[in-house]
Amino acid sequence: METAPVFEEFDPPDDCDCAGCRHWRRVLPHSRTGRAGVHPAARRALIVATAAASALGTGVAAAVPAAAHAAHRPGVAADDVPDTPQGPRAPLHGPAGLPSVPPAGTAPAAITRTEIIERAQTWVTAKVPYSMTAYWSDGYRQDCSGYVSMAWKLPTNEWTGSLGTFADRITKEELQPGDILLFHNTADPQKGSHVVIFGGWADSTHTSYLAYEQTPPHTRKQSTPYAYWSDSAKYLPYRYKGVTATTAGAEAQVPAPGPASHGVAGYPGRAMFRPGADNPYVTRLGRQLVTKGFGTHYTTGPGPRWGEADRRGVEAFQRAEGWRGGAADGYPGPETWRRLFS
Question: What is the pLDDT confidence band of residue 47, given thresholds at 50, 70 and 90?
Answer without folding.
Answer: very low
